[in-house]
Predict the 3D structure of the following.
Amino acid sequence: MTTTASILESATRLFNQSGTARVSTNHIAKEAGISPGNLYYHYKDKFDIIRAIYEQMINAWDKAYEQIDEKNLPEAALSAFIETNFELLWMYRFFYRENVALINADPILFNRHTEITRERLKKQRSLLQAVQNRRGNLPGNFLDLDETLTVTWVVANHYLIHLESLGQTVEKKDFKAGAALVIKVLQSYLQA
């Protein structure tokens, strides 16, 4: 593993465990088994590390999106895509736990996140629109396409915060319930 990969892996693990505010670059360097000077050779500060993790996260999501084909979107493919999304939400949970604070503290991250969010919403809308175009009016769908997209986006991106705000200690298995909830909201799109 390269030094940069070790730094990012160590930082992600520590951020997930303790939050970004409680983790210093010295903690990250120690976890990665390198000196603080070596860490600063690769990343100028904690925000630089968070931005690099964000780009790593976006690259992982790009791979998930590459598996989805608008022209042929069977239920199993869309369900797998949703489950992959929740796997990634778990892997990078610190970002979703602290999303608003992180993007408000870093204008570079704010601009990048806004850009990515708009792209992702456009892509997801296109996926749902393709299903709706093939199947016509979807029976039992009480939400229009944009409302459905909003509900699924909010559930996915804020599921962790919801559980933690109830005092629940969240484990990876809890995210399966979140994925199941999104699948239920999308049921009319998933039915053949």
